[in-house]
Design brief:
Elements lengths: L2 H9 L4 E2 L45 E6 L9 E3 L2 E8 L12 E8 L5 E8 L12 H4 L7 E2 L3 E5 L5 E5 L4 E5 L17 E3 L2 E6 H4 L1 E6 L5 E6 L11 E4 L5 E7 L2 E5 L6 E6 L11 E3 L2 E5 L6 E5 L4 E2 L5 E5 L9 E3 L2 E6 L2 E6 L5 E6 L18 E3 L2 E5 L4 E6 L6 E6 L12 E3 L2 E5 L3 E5 L5
Parallel strand pairs: 18-22
Antiparallel strand pairs: 1-14, 2-34, 3-4, 4-5, 5-6, 7-8, 8-9, 9-10, 11-12, 12-13, 13-14, 15-16, 16-17, 17-18, 19-20, 20-21, 21-23, 24-25, 25-26, 26-27, 28-29, 29-30, 30-31, 32-33, 33-34
Length: about 450
Amino acid sequence: MDSILWYSIRFGAMARVALPALALAVSVAPAGADWPRFRGPNGSGVAADDKPTPAEFGETKNLRWKVELPGEGVSCPIVVGDRLFVTTYSGYGAEGGTQLDLVRHLLCYDAKTGKELWRTEIEAVLPEDAYAGMGVPSHGYASHTPVSDGERIYAFFGKSGVKAFDLDGNQLWERSVGTDSDPRRWGSSSSPLVVDGVVVVVAGPEKRAIVGLDATSGSELWTAESETLANVWGSPVTAPGEGGKTDVVLGTPGEIWGINPATGKIRWFAGAVGEDGFNTSVVVADGVAYCVEGRSGGSMALRTGGKGDVGQSHLVWSGRDANRFGTPLVYRDRLWFVSNRIANCLDAKTGEKIFQARLPSEGGGAFGRGADYASPVAADGKIYYVTGNGEVHVLKAADELESLAVNALGTEGESFAATPAISDGALFIRSSRHLWCFSEGGQ
């Protein structure tokens, strides 16, 4: 990184802070069973409740409901109370069309019945990155998972900006966070979070920046810029910081950052894995941040908090584990990740490998396009992992590979890249065409 830029993002010289930051809005906390953002509570991938969830499911077993979506997308469903929200896109992409036809959809369903409650369409800001090459065709134009604070839904659509809606679908505000592209023109995928009344948006490709927006008004509170953000694809999470404060934690090429959500300034940082890009998200459990990266490989665990360079003082362990695109999962003192359909289980406290084994395959699924992009999630002592062709693997959370079921979903040409949501004993899975809800007995 350029030395001036390096200094600036460290000490906040490039962070612009607006006066409204002094009076941040107070958010209403989501309900206990909610799955309010990418990978659920704080991006952990772990269900907030201990309700029983099904191991075996399909079109004729444990199906509560199934709906056809009005477009494609790899964004994940979120659950707020009795409502489910998801985004899609249509008009341009795998089925043809031109960029002039591109439109996004934000949809709301009754989580119990699958009944559509409302939908809204978002006009695209053009030009978009072309549906060509390696990047955009693998995820399309609805890649960012929305986030909710229990009062509002915040949806990020890349070049088309950030939109806020109430739970009934009324748009409250919108804000552009840039219209640039990443060097490879792969399109962006980082999902926003909301903390202490601030919507934090990683607009790496669009603006080479992290942006803090007032959750109530959408006004820009701060912008922290860095060229390295152009190659960040993961989503931020929160972690406990010094003196009871909350940090926003983000993995970037070569470093992990702990950011003050009120100002955008970096409180602490540590040298990390990932040299030219950061594909996955950091996951935080019990005050420790974990990452297992893909392009360059490498794994580490780091205590959060502190000031300045904490790379040595806060390091718990480091390793040479290699990942692909999925964010790791910390569950019952174990760190799980799946790479190239190989399941990996590490001791979360030491980094020691417990086992590594290939996932079984039933040869089913939709045989759709694309690689495996979903991340593992957990509930009820089970780990769920969705492959690109629609095989949903259910593993027992144990110290050896124990497959409870392999459930095949979808039809030929249907692709699966979204991470499931889990709420109140229900498992929500979306594909490029459908959205399913499974629960014990379909109840």
